[in-house]
Fold:
Amino acid sequence: MGERIKKCICLIFCVITGITAAGCSIMGQDTGQRVAVEFTVVSADEVPSGLMEIIESHKTEEIQMTWEGDEGMYLIRGYGEQPTGGYSIIVDAVELGEDGLHVTTTLIGPSNEEKPAQEPSCPYIVLRVEDARQEVIFEP
Structure:
């Protein structure tokens, strides 16, 4: 009889541990359901001067930052110094999920047909969204 009680207690402990572990892995994760958010790509001459100063001082480094302005929230993604010119950035998605605003971009290198400038470049992109007041998550 004592052996049977030990097995029951062990089984109950395993079930409770399994349920707790499953609950911990679910908490804090985005369920994958996201809604597209409208955004505007802001040209360099339209970037607020205070923000442009920050970008210029950090453009040789990788940048993932937000900046709040009068016209909304600015999302800045820079890829740091690249060996040549000819790089561009594609915005794959700006989406709102349960855990925040997800920004996905891709750095595109110069094409084989294009002869890029031999000088290093520092590609970056500035996006503007309405003030979402959400945590922003930059994805690779």
